[in-house]
């Protein structure tokens, strides 16, 4: 049980002009990971590679100790994936799609499936082509959550969901995490929700991991500093990033593992205010161009 | 067949069972009619091509979900083979066997074994070419169809001068060898294919306005070329397929089949429009203007393809006159096909043999040209109205596109 849920080692994948990686990322078991990044950062590509949809150009992927793509069948049996692009329309009706998918998973729980259908206001007789976008996401969630998967990969699971459905999804994730050794990776732009739910965070930008770690540690690691320049120019310092400047007033992002406030004072800065960051603030500060 | 592959293959919805039953009936009719020496139903040979493509399309539609299931790539490729190659092949063999039994029981069997084998070979070549190339090459349905049509056109051009049963036998042998190779060495490249880069949407800014339209309509020129080649290819293949069976007149049937292919041009265009219908309706153009632009663009593509078709017919001393008489009807039918496609009624593909079946016996009727013009104009107006209705008041066109090509991202 101590082995990590996901290990990516030097994973590189080129898709046209975009290059993902090299990515080195380890996700511990039993964690809920917020996998965030701006549009086009490579989040979906990364999750697709984890699931075996496409192969990396270089590097290795291990999921629960199983290697992709060698053990891809076993990996798929242990991992559930939700993505807004999943389309069950070929099966015509909700019940038919469920009947087909459930046959592949010995750990499928019909009782849980029926409960989820009711919770998400879906009916087995509904035509999938007539479902709204949000209802299709709900169907994908039903398919993933009706199993006893070890890892849940959720790519934008809240897109198109109403508030009630979103709350239900979060409670389902919490229930999922009650089981031993379960891991959830959620890619979403709803950072407020993620900050409440996740205990780990990984921020991807331009195909590269900017930072990763425990949510509380990461949020504590950075602080926003408002300061006045007393020495004219802003000194170059490791761990200090300029976020905004207006004449002699500057707003800085300070990485406390690399520099501290005393370093700023020595560099000719008079500190006016220090503001703790939320995940959203941190994200904006880190990916700001 | 392993249990997993069987589970994938046997997952056939009820409506597809109906389609399969229809196809089996059509094959039986074609085979019985051929064994009895009749001509008209032979036009439905073209249905065979559609059969393979549709089976492949159905399998491809499910690929994004199949790839998430705990099944190996090889099992997915095998399931795809059974659905698109094995199934149609079994249907063809069974259909011919039943037809033979029926005709022999009646005591009317006149065809020699070599001719029967040639018929089966020709049917296999028509039905299996696109699926075999797709499964063996790991290609998308669209790419495989393009390659096959080009291949058919080149082959047909080489063999334009009336081949004998040998052609059917050789084509069948190649198709079966390809089917065997596709079974033994299925490619899974399609499962690893990278997602295509995002396509440009029509530009919203004033300065980008024309660029946006150009981006939307540019692929039409490529479609025009593909359609020209495919209509010529089908014209020639049909001419050969029919001629090798009997000495009956083949020109009108072949022309009607080739032109029937042309009538389907707006289906490809309509599918593209349907993909970006929401974006298209956001541009500041009235529904009236938009419908006119789309119908006009589709008709232009048909005219371009027809011009190429005519040049080919003239060069090969073919029947451009019959094709010309059919043109108004083709453009009128094309407008309907655009509406049908926007509605999502993909079964419009069946219009092709229907169009050929109806028009082939009439094309040499003296007043046919006048009837074609009148009916064509009426169809064009009705097709335009339908397109306008779908774009302005319909809801189907704005639903997610159900038959998008599977990519590794699952779209």
At a glance:
Chain A is of the alpha/beta class and 289 residues long.
What would you note in describing this structure?
The complex is a heterodimer of chains A (289) and B (411). In chain A, strand 12 (240-246) and strand 13 form a beta hairpin. In chain A, 32% of the residues lie in helices and 31% in strands. In chain A, helix 4 (110-119) runs antiparallel to helix 5. In chain A, strands 6-7-8-3-9-10 form a 6-stranded mixed beta sheet, with helices on both faces. Chain A contains 10 helices and 14 strands. The radius of gyration of chain A is 22 Å and the shape is elongated. Chain A has 289 residues and is of the alpha/beta class. Chain A folds into 2 domains: 6-206, Rossmann fold, CATH 3.40.50; 221-287. Chain B has 411 residues and is mostly helical. Chain B has 2 domains: 1-192; 208-411, no CATH class. Chain B has helices at 3-9, 14-36, 45-66, 73-106, 113-137, 141-158, 165-184, 189-192, 209-243, 251-263, 265-275, 277-282, 287-315, 320-343, 351-359, 368-392. In chain B, helix 5 (113-137) packs across helix 6 and helix 5 packs parallel to helix 7. Chain B starts with a helix and ends in a 19-residue tail after the last helix. Chains A and B meet through helix 1, helix 2 and helix 3 of A and helix 3 of B.
Averaged pLDDT of chain A, please?
A: 88
Number of domains of chain B: 2
Name of the level-1 CATH class of the largest domain in chain A: Alpha Beta
SS-derived structural category of chain B: mainly alpha
Radius of gyration of chain A: 22 Å
The averaged pLDDT of chain B comes out at 72
Low-confidence stretches of chain A: none
Roughly what fraction of the amino acids of chain B lie in strands? under 5%
Number of helices of chain A: 10
* Strand-pairing-aware structural class of chain A: alpha/beta
Major interchain interface with per-chain residue totals:
A-B, 34 and 31 residues
């Amino acid at each position: 049980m101590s082995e990590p849920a996901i290990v990516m080692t030097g994973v590189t994948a080129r898709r046209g002009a975009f290059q993902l990686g090299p990515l080195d990322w380890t996700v511990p078991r039993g964690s809920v990971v917020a996998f965030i990044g701006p549009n086009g950062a490579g989040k979906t590509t990364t999750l697709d590679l984890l699931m075996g949809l496409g192969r990396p150009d270089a590097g290795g992927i291990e999921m629960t100790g199983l290697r992709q793509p060698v053990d891809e069948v076993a990996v798929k049996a242990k991992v559930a994936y939700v993505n807004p692009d999943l389309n069950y329309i070929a099966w015509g009706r909700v019940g038919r799609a469920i009947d087909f998918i459930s046959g592949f998973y010995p750990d499928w729980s019909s009782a849980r499936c029926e409960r989820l259908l009711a919770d998400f206001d879906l009916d087995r007789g509904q035509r999938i082509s007539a479902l709204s976008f949000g209802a299709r996401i709900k169907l994908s969630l039903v398919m993933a959550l009706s199993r006893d998967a070890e890892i849940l990969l959720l790519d934008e699971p809240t897109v198109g969901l109403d508030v009630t459905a979103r709350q239900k999804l979060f409670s389902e994730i919490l229930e999922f995490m009650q089981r031993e050794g379960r891991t959830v990776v959620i890619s979403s732009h709803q950072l407020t929700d993620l900050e409440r739910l996740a205990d780990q965070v990984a921020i991807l930008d331009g195909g590269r991991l900017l930072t990763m770690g425990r949510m509380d540690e990461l949020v504590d690691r950075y602080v926003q500093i408002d300061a006045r320049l007393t020495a004219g120019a802003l000194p170059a310092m490791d761990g200090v990033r300029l976020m905004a400047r207006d004449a002699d007033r500057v707003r800085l992002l300070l990485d406390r593992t690399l520099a501290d406030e005393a370093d700023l004072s020595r560099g000719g800065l008079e500190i006016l205010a220090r503001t703790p960051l939320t995940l959203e603030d941190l994200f904006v500060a880190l990916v700001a161009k | 067949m392993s249990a997993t592959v069987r589970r994938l293959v046997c997952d056939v919805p009820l409506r597809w069972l109906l389609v399969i039953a229809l196809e089996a009936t059509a094959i039986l009719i074609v085979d019985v009619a051929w064994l009895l020496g009749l001509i008209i139903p032979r036009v439905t040979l073209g249905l065979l091509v559609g059969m393979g493509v549709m089976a492949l399309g159905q399998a491809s539609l499910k690929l994004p979900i199949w790839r998430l299931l705990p099944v190996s790539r090889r099992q997915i490729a095998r399931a795809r083979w059974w659905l698109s190659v094995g199934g149609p092949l079994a249907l063809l063999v069974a259909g011919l066997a039943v037809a033979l039994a029926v005709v022999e029981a009646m005591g009317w069997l006149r065809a020699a074994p070599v001719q029967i084998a040639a018929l089966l070979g020709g049917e296999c070549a028509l039905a299996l070419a696109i699926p075999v190339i797709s499964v063996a090459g790991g290609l998308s349905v669209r790419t495989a169809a393009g390659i096959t049509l080009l291949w058919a056109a080149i082959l047909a051009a080489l063999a334009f001068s009336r081949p004998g049963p040998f052609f059917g036998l050789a084509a069948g042998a190649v198709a079966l060898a390809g089917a065997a190779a596709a079974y033994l060495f299925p490619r899974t490249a399609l499962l690893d294919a990278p997602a295509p880069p995002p396509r440009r949407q029509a530009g919203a800014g004033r300065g980008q306005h024309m660029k946006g339209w150009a981006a939307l309509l540019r692929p039409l020129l490529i479609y025009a070329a593909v359609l020209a080649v495919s209509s010529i290819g089908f014209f020639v293949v049909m001419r050969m397929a029919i001629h090798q069976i009997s000495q009956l007149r083949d020109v009108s049937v072949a022309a009607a089949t080739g032109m029937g292919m042309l009538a389907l041009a707006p289906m490809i265009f309509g599918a593209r429009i349907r993909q970006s219908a929401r974006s298209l309706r956001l541009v500041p153009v009235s529904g009236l203007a938009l419908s006119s632009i789309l119908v006009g663009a589709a008709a232009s593509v048909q005219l371009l393809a027809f011009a190429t078709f005519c040049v080919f017919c003239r060069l090969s001393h073919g029947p451009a006159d019959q094709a010309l008489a059919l043109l108004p009807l083709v453009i009128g039918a094309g407008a309907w096909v655009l509406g049908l496609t926007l509605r999502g009624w993909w079964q419009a593909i069946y219009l092709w043999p229907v169009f050929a079946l109806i028009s082939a016996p009439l094309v040499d009727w003296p007043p046919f040209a006048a009837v074609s013009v009148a009916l064509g104009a009426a169809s064009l107006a009705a097709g335009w109205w339908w397109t306008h209705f779908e774009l302005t008041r319909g809801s189907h066109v704005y639903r997610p596109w159900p038959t998008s090509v599977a990519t590794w991202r699952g779209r």
